[in-house]
Amino acid sequence: MSSTFGRLFRAITFGESHCKAVGVVVDGCPPKMALSESDVQIQLDRRRPGQSKLTTDRDEADRVILLFGVDSRMTLGTPVAMMVHNKDQRPGDYGEMAFVPRPSHADYTYQMKYGIRASSGGGRSSARETIGRVAAGAIAEKFLRDVYGVEIVAWVSGVGETSAPDPDESAVTRAMVDDSPVRCPDAGSAAAMSDEILAAREASDSVGGVVSCICRNAPVGLGEPVFDKLEAALAQAMLSIPATKGFEIGSGFAGARMRGSAHNDPFVRKGGRLGTRTNFSGGVQGGISNGEPIRFRVAFKPPATIGQAQSTADFEGNETTLAAKGRHDPCVVPRAVPIVEAMAALVLADMALIQKTRQA
Amino acid sequence: MSSTFGRLFRAITFGESHCKAVGVVVDGCPPKMALSESDVQIQLDRRRPGQSKLTTDRDEADRVILLFGVDSRMTLGTPVAMMVHNKDQRPGDYGEMAFVPRPSHADYTYQMKYGIRASSGGGRSSARETIGRVAAGAIAEKFLRDVYGVEIVAWVSGVGETSAPDPDESAVTRAMVDDSPVRCPDAGSAAAMSDEILAAREASDSVGGVVSCICRNAPVGLGEPVFDKLEAALAQAMLSIPATKGFEIGSGFAGARMRGSAHNDPFVRKGGRLGTRTNFSGGVQGGISNGEPIRFRVAFKPPATIGQAQSTADFEGNETTLAAKGRHDPCVVPRAVPIVEAMAALVLADMALIQKTRQA
Amino acid sequence: MSSTFGRLFRAITFGESHCKAVGVVVDGCPPKMALSESDVQIQLDRRRPGQSKLTTDRDEADRVILLFGVDSRMTLGTPVAMMVHNKDQRPGDYGEMAFVPRPSHADYTYQMKYGIRASSGGGRSSARETIGRVAAGAIAEKFLRDVYGVEIVAWVSGVGETSAPDPDESAVTRAMVDDSPVRCPDAGSAAAMSDEILAAREASDSVGGVVSCICRNAPVGLGEPVFDKLEAALAQAMLSIPATKGFEIGSGFAGARMRGSAHNDPFVRKGGRLGTRTNFSGGVQGGISNGEPIRFRVAFKPPATIGQAQSTADFEGNETTLAAKGRHDPCVVPRAVPIVEAMAALVLADMALIQKTRQA
Amino acid sequence: MSSTFGRLFRAITFGESHCKAVGVVVDGCPPKMALSESDVQIQLDRRRPGQSKLTTDRDEADRVILLFGVDSRMTLGTPVAMMVHNKDQRPGDYGEMAFVPRPSHADYTYQMKYGIRASSGGGRSSARETIGRVAAGAIAEKFLRDVYGVEIVAWVSGVGETSAPDPDESAVTRAMVDDSPVRCPDAGSAAAMSDEILAAREASDSVGGVVSCICRNAPVGLGEPVFDKLEAALAQAMLSIPATKGFEIGSGFAGARMRGSAHNDPFVRKGGRLGTRTNFSGGVQGGISNGEPIRFRVAFKPPATIGQAQSTADFEGNETTLAAKGRHDPCVVPRAVPIVEAMAALVLADMALIQKTRQA
Question: How many CB atoms neighbour CB C190 within 10 A?
């Protein structure tokens, strides 16, 4: 079950880094939705390696192929499958890692869990698995946009010691985000972040970061009490992305330091509906969307695979030194932006379908 | 489905604040496990209202009744059900709230989601729902303790502006935690936290906080790639607790500011197994437990229901002022400690059962 | 998971024969549906023991109590729970069975599966578990009737060697069915069936039977390809009822003897829609309802617990003789009629909610 | 969710008749199991078209390709995917059917359910979908055979008016079954069945049939009360196969005509375990396997697509005549044998994994 996400709008990702292809089956997408490969490719292009000097220089085109579930550019209501070929397989780069588990990587735990693991690459723990997420998320997002006008925009709000000021969350767009290769809409912060990443790369090191995300125009009523609260589903979705260490919605950890009188979001009339003056809740009350923008942040650790030599132990427990070869991202957050958007879209689409069951 | 948590070790909570009882059905608990009401009552006593001046002074005994699934103090393998009667129903206290949705509470979103809501109390959004979680968690915890020796200890690490230093995570116990009513094992911090809570109560206000948790002796191999990573399941579990705003595992948001060379946890031989020198990973690598303590933190916002008058709008959008009556907690974190432990236990028990399917 | 039925419209039954109560939690019932205990009681009265000389003479009133999820006779959209107290607990009747597993009963398999079993009664295998099904089904049925005008009518079409001719499936009602205690709408067959049952009782024996069911006015489009076809879901539902041995839809096993030219149901215009001239399909094509009546049959074996002495072996494998004490049904089909209706309603309600997700 | 079968041992089939490929993802297969393509191909060869004059003469090799999840012929514990290319796509054959829904086929219901359908072929209702089932089932079966010694053998026991006598269920093998192209181990019946099928083909007609199945050496304890009883899971599995109309286990519908004293299976000592003298239960008591052979039968209707002209209506309701072109099976049961075996294996493997969670 662990490769399946969602209840009614379901994504089942498949494939591994060093096999022929990765992809996804989307089960539950409503029928008669216009869909073509370009709807998906646009987000895959934002995820692909080799986009800029800030990412790995492995250059992979990652062209999506729509396998079935779509006829004459319309969804059939039956499962949609998409595949991306793995172009640049370099099993040779991983030779040493057969004996030495990479610190803070999945090598050791996969071996212990299954008693066996893929002989090269990270198997299912590979970041290439996220291609399937991004492809499925693009479909979910199209559904949300077509039906509800939902807009989902994520951006890099932190890299290492650099934190960017919040943009105007009612106005920030993907175009603004993509203005800098680091995907931070604040130009000054973007430059500093870029410097941090290049410095880490220079040092054969890596650096962590934070991705913020806003979902505008999500309808009121998404999220299921008790255990499938919207923030709980988002938290699961985000912490399922490789390299994530934290999630906060609305006020988040800062909210834990506040008093209720300051934190409560007073209701006000907004056009024909009830809105809130502030949005410390992050668009969610009692686990259910309230019509305000859904705001959350995701912490990413620095990538585990670094060129710098590290003292560690091999599988036998013998001390050794490991210096990763291969071409790895010094920082994942620029490429994580479309992944965060995709997972947010998958959560909202699933919750929107569930909520439809309550309509007259 | 939203009242069900888990896949193999399942908790289905039931009941509402202002009905006769709340409770839980636990489906999937292994057979032939010794179990009696006292195993469950001990954690319910730590959750119940009226424990100290720091909590609501509603005094509810919350005695658990084991309904079935246990015979001669042994589990049968069939569902176990437990119930707690609601002693202190005061629907009258909520009169005004029928017309004015409480800011940052579930009143508005439940009404919008369902077009109807419970005429008094918070319905399923009530904190009394967590009684079922704590009861189910106590069973999960007993299973984990009996079979694997797992120890789960949560404590209050922050209240408002006060943050406590980390205790020795290899040694902290529930007894140390319960030494202060605020449930912070650091005596100095506990006193400051207690002052913050009392000051908030004095001001008819509320204050947020942070609960930290450690799970020791969890076996290696728990957590399912891709979407059911251990940290993803924990994140969902924690963000499903009312009033939570954030979750971080291991280094968390602080890890996003680090470099890989500092953040990576080098492997070292620990007795007969491979361990790590540091634990920025928080006991999880690639979504799978690595045998190190599982460490995470949960942010709780200040309770929404406060006695202070707040400017807000009624359901019609008319400006009004709301001052909650009734006896509400000025800060939830002292009572949230056993809830966090319960949800952690439910996640680990479920993952442990799934992992059993891989054993020869 | 095994006590949960359904995906969106979910029933979770609980309780055992010899504990205080049995019942059900219904999760996913749409909000704002009028509901009171009498909507449920009417079907429980058709299921209860002691209705006639054809059933066990244990007299249990089986009064349903609505615990929560309903406010001012309207569903809240949150889980609905219902409970029936166990009035007539007679653990003493089962003494001998502690050592001798009843042939063709669950005693042996529960013991082997769990290594333990309830010390009296059948635990979760008890027919009293079906009270929860009937209660949940009554809610599902009310939803289907209110929203779509669905009519579900089951009847006894076979007892032992007696088979009844098919009634007019477009017209048969529950009132016609209940005209005879055996619940066969054909008076002549009903008399013969009644004789067969009384003869079996006289002989301290039991006898099997068949329940037929028709669901009229089910909307077109229910059922999910590939694995959740409507007939697959119905088959699971029916074979989950205790004592069932077979299920057939439409032509069933007789259809296996036919040629396609005779079996195919030609399309014809029926009012504003497309219907079929014949209904060998049983209202389902390709796993999806086609708007014609859904017709199926369920085989029930003779009850395993009989008063007659049987040669068998005890748990140790020693030959012995067993003659059941207690008051057991000589034939289950008259009381199984509302259970079959309930399970059909649960399937259709679940499928109807899923299909709602495809509506514009 | 509807393309996913199973809970722990999961098969997710994908693809349509007239797209490039069909296949399956198997999630939950235990790690370190020897597996190669030939383990799967052997069953696909028994399912493929063009095997004999009794089946469609479309000749498709249906070579399976193992995409990932296996490394050096060992399962990794991560999802296994397999694919079969569609060689013989003939969309042109279906031209007329765009306007006239085939009687008793999925054309009409798919169109009504989704408001759209695949422009050629049957989309997901195509029998080619079952390739994924057979491939997944072959893996499940290998797991069951390697770990428990389970043997699953299905055969054709009825075609049209011909019914075969039961073989010796303790001895019948696939080799005996495959001795005749019709896959009936009784030579005389096989000849008669063959004649019936050829006569139907000659008449541009089709004919139904029955597949029987036996599962030997299944461990005691498989099946989950209440709703996931073994027979309920098998019934769902079998009724999810295209063209099925009925399922019966053990005595089945014949059992409904029996008395308890004759139907009950007395316990006897069998070697070191408790067995039963007769097996009217079909290897299942109280929804749980009892160690005796699991016996069941599945009814298949005559294929809907026939060459004979049929009077019917088009989508508009206008009377018309339809005579299917293309090369279709006159009878599905010879090729359904491996599909029934596959679905049985998927059910048993899933139940076996669930039962493992109860082992010490």
Answer: 23
Cβ contact B354–D78 (<8 Å): no
Does residue B1 carry a pLDDT above 60?
Answer: no
CA distance A214 to D116: 34
Total H helices, total E strands in chain B: 9, 18
- Helices C230-239 and C333-356, packing angle to 10 deg: 140
Q: Percentages helix, strand, coil for chain C, rounded to the nearest 5? A: 30, 25, 45
CA distance, residue D3 to nearest chain B CA (Å):
18
- pLDDT at residue B129, as a whole number: 92
Rounded Cα gap, residues A73 and A37, in angstroms? 9
Tell me which amino acid residue D141 is.
E
**Amino acid identity, residue D71?**
D
Any chain B CB within 8 A of the CB of C111?
A: no
For residues D223 and B10, what is the distance between their CA atoms, to the nearest angstrom?
17
Tokens of residue B135, six digits: 């009861």
CA distances in angstroms from A239 to A59, A182, D131, listed in the order given? 27, 22, 35
Tell me the per-residue pLDDT of A19-58, one tens digit each, with 9 for 90 and over: 888 999 999 999 999 999 999 999 999 999 888 888 776 6
Burial class (CB in 10 A: 0-12, 13-18, 19+), D170: exposed
Per the DSSP assignment, residues forming a β-bridge with B163 are B158
Collapsed DSSP state (helix, strand, coil) of residue C26 = strand
Do residues D60 and D48 lie in contact, with contact meaning Cβ atoms separated by under 8 Å?
A: yes
Instruction: Residue D116: name the closest of C241, B91, C221 by CA.
Output: C221
Q: Which two tokens stand for residue D18?
A: 């007239």
The domain locations on chain B are 4-356
Would you tell me how many other CB atoms lie within 10 Å of the CB of residue B138? 26
Question: Best residue in C26, C357, C358, C359 to probe A by mutation, most A CBs within 10 Å?
Answer: C357
What is the pTM (predicted TM-score) of this model?
0.96
Q: Would the CA dihedral through C182, C188, C194, C196 be positive or negative? A: negative
Compare CB distances from B225 to D8, D78, D358 and report the shortest one's residue.
D78
Fold of C4-356: Chorismate synthase, AroC fold (3.60.150)
Q: Which of A35, A82, A83, A114 to mutate to test the interface with D (most CBs of D within 10 A)?
A: A114
Return the pLDDT at A96: 63
pLDDT, tens digit, for every residue of A165-212? 999 999 999 999 999 999 999 999 999 999 999 999 999 999 999 999
Cβ neighbors of C97 (< 8 A, separation 6 or more) are C107, C322, C324
Q: Which residues are bridge partners to C210 per DSSP?
A: C158, C299
Give the 3-state secondary structure of C220-251. Answer: CCCCECCCECHHHHHHHHHHCCCCEEEEEECC
The count of other CB atoms within 10 Å of the CB of residue D92 is 9
Is the four-CA dihedral B108, B109, B110, B112 of positive or negative sign? positive
Judge whether A85 is closer than 8 Å to chain D, CB to CB.
no
Distance from CA of A132 to the nearest CA of D (A): 14
Q: CA B306: distance to chain centroid?
A: 22
Residue D14 contacts residue A14 (beta carbons within 8 Å): no
The closest alpha carbon to A261, from C78, B11, C123, B202, belongs to: B202
Q: Does B116 touch chain A (CB under 8 A)?
A: no
Residue B113 to residue A261, Cβ atoms within 8 A: no
- D312 reaches C (C-beta below 8 A): yes
- Is D30–B354 a contact, with Cβ atoms under 8 angstroms apart? no
More confident position, D325 or C303: C303
Report the alpha-carbon distance of residue D276 to residue B220 in Å, rounded.
Answer: 42
Confidence (pLDDT) at D20: 82
C-alpha triplet A204, A208, A214: angle, nearest 5°: 145
Structure confidence at residue B121 as a pLDDT band (50, 70, 90): low
